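Reference record:
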Amino acid sequence: MALININYESKTLGMPVMINAIIPQGRGNYKTLYLLHGMGGDYTTWITKSRVADYVDNTDIAVIMISGDNKCYVDNVHGRKYFTFLTEELIEICTNWFGLSCDRKDRYIAGMSMGGYGAVYAGLKKPSMYNTVFSYSGLLNILERYDKPQGIDMFPVFGTRQQLIDNNYDLYTLINHAENVQTKYVIACGTQDPRIHMSRQFSEALTNGGIPNVYRESPGAHDFAYWD
């Protein structure tokens, strides 16, 4: 296993980006987990605060980690195209650089908090791209967070509240529009998490929308002791 740190100029974002990649030792064609951090984090968060490297050691799973810059992994209304970077450019370059499998059954995406929103958004927007999406304590009701931003400026990301709705950034709207969904969802949250209602309600909405999902809750708070 190798931990590789890359700094390169993203054409989609129009700026330098950093990537951490955990790559198995083998002959390529690896399964891949795209692992997203939450607000206040960056491409180092999962490496420094969890045992992700230990978990994938001696497996055929590569892990790709980027910085979301508190922009929710969507194409921003007044900013850069993080969704396009995540779901197009990043997959293309990492597949070429690291010999990753091109088969959707070998591609996974996961994230905690804001990263949980980003992972689910990517899965619903591109329903044939990922095998499974994992949300850990996900920020799954983005309208609720927009109304209570807690110090994060949501306007550059989503525009006005009405623009957020009209542009289908709301995950519930994407469920209603979903067709030919091939992706499975795992929604997990700690029972002491103050936003556990988001995970419970969203899993129910997926079920009602006919989208395969597993809901898991266990003791834990909104922190890395639970996410790890």
